[in-house]
Design a protein that fits this description.
The chain is mainly alpha-helical. Among the domains are: about 45 residues; about 70 residues. The protein is built from seven helices and two strands, in the order αααββαααα. Strands 1-2 form a two-stranded antiparallel ribbon. The longest helix has 21 residues. The two termini are about 35 Å apart.
C-alpha cells in the first residue's frame, strides 16, 4: 500500500494540467486513505488498544506458533533453578522418634536438609518508646524519635514502596491496591493515601529525573 501511494503521489506531482481544485481533492483523498490504513494496522502490540480489539488476520503467524507450542519450558530455554541458600531465615529440627527404632545406642551423624521457599505476607508493627527522664527540679528530657517518625500512628516506608510499586509498575488501580492491603495485611489504606504516596515518590525522584535527562542529552 505504501508503494502504491508513493506512485500515486508521484504521478499527481508530474501531472501539470490538473486544476487546483481537483488536485486538492485528490490530495485529501490520499490523506484519508493513509489515515484509514494506519488505523487498520493498529493493534494491542503497537498502540494502547486493548487485546479484545485485535483483528484476526492471516498475518498472526507468531500467535499461531505460540498457540501450537506445548506448555512448559521450550527447547533451548535457559531455565532458572531454585537453589539452596547458606543462611535460611528459620531452621526447624526434626528428631527421629527413637521409640520406633530397634533397641540400641544411637548418635547423630548429620542431617538431611531440605529448604522450602515461601513468602510471609503479614503486618509488622514497630513501636518506638522514647525514654523520658525527669530531673529533681521536674524538668523532663525525652529521647528523640528516628527521622520520619512524626505521628502517634503512621505507615512505614515499606508500605509506601509497595503501594507505589503495585500502582505504578504493575498498573493496578488505586481501589484494588487499597483492597490488597486491607485483605492481605489488615491495613486500611485509602485510595487517597495511594495517590499521596505516588505523589511523594514523584517529587523525591524529580532531581534524579533531571540528572538522567541531562545525561541522556
Amino acid at each position: 500500500m505504501d508503494a502504491t501511494l508513493k506512485t500515486v503521489q508521484q504521478l499527481l506531482a508530474e501531472e501539470a494540467h490538473l486544476s487546483p481544485a481537483l488536485r486538492s481533492i485528490l490530495e485529501v483523498m490520499i490523506m484519508l486513505v493513509k489515515l484509514m490504513a494506519n488505523r487498520l494496522s493498529l493493534n494491542s502490540r503497537n498502540s494502547s488498544q486493548p487485546p479484545s480489539t485485535d483483528r484476526f488476520t492471516k498475518g498472526d503467524k507468531a500467535d499461531k506458533e505460540d498457540a501450537d507450542k506445548k506448555s512448559g519450558g521450550q527447547p533451548g530455554r535457559v531455565g532458572s533453578t531454585l537453589k539452596k541458600i547458606d543462611h535460611p531465615d528459620d531452621i526447624k529440627y526434626l528428631s527421629v522418634d527413637r521409640s520406633t527404632l530397634p533397641p540400641g545406642d544411637y548418635r547423630v551423624v548429620g542431617f538431611d536438609c531440605r529448604q522450602v521457599f515461601d513468602i510471609d505476607i503479614r503486618r509488622f508493627v514497630t513501636e518506638y518508646q522514647a525514654e523520658i527522664l525527669e530531673s529533681a527540679q521536674g524538668q523532663r528530657f525525652t529521647a528523640p524519635f528516628p527521622a520520619g517518625v512524626s505521628k502517634a500512628v503512621q505507615y512505614g516506608h515499606g508500605v509506601k514502596v509497595q503501594s507505589v510499586y503495585l500502582s505504578q509498575y504493575q498498573l493496578i488501580p488505586y481501589k484494588r491496591v487499597a483492597e490488597h492491603f486491607k485483605d492481605q495485611l489488615t491495613l486500611p489504606i485509602s485510595e487517597g493515601s495511594v495517590y499521596a504516596y505516588n505523589r511523594q515518590a514523584y517529587e523525591l525522584l524529580e532531581v534524579f529525573e533531571q540528572k538522567v535527562i541531562a545525561k541522556l542529552l
